[in-house]
Amino acid sequence: MPRKFFLLSFVLLVSCALRISAQTKDPIEHLWYDQDKTAKIEIYLAKDGKYYGKIVWLKVPTVNGKNKIDIHNPDEQKRNEPILGLVLLRGFNKEGKNIYEDGTVYDPKGGRTYSCKMTLNGNKLNVHGYWGISIIGRSTTWTMAD
Q: pLDDT by residue (tens digit) across 44-102?
């Protein structure tokens, strides 16, 4: 009897712990529409403790019947990789309540990677890419997807 009780208690404890950890996701861990709503980006916490984002949906996923590929990538060997599934946000640390810094954003339209800072404001995410200092750069606003 004590062995069954111990096993049952252990199983309940583990299931509760998993449920609690699933409920404590960071608010940035969500699906986001880019500013033009032509792509959805999934932001997730990776095993290294940093936040990443990958393209999981494209409004227009093909060109001339073929999957869109990363034709502007500066690495010629990556120019045939599909845009769908592309990791474009890398290595963000959470700094403060709603600020994510020290990461990079890749722009597949131009093939450039920029330093990046993101600020969460409710269901809006300000994504600011820049070179050098953050004053020189460009911001875009993403919207939380349904």
A: 999 999 999 999 999 999 999 999 999 999 999 999 999 999 999 999 999 989 999 99
Domains and CATH numbers, the chain: 26-144 (2.40.128.520)
CA–CA separation, 116 and 134 (whole Å): 8
Q: 114: closest CA among 100, 90, 128, 131?
A: 131
Q: Are 70 and 79 within 8 A, CB to CB?
A: yes
CA 75/CA 54 separation, integer angstroms = 18
pTM listed for this prediction: 0.81
- 130 contacts 115 by C-beta, under 8 angstroms: yes
C-alpha span between 100 and 113 (Å, rounded): 17
- What pLDDT sits at residue 132? 85
Nearest to 99 by CA among 82, 80, 116: 116
- Quote the CA–CA distance of 143 and 93 in Å, as a whole number: 20
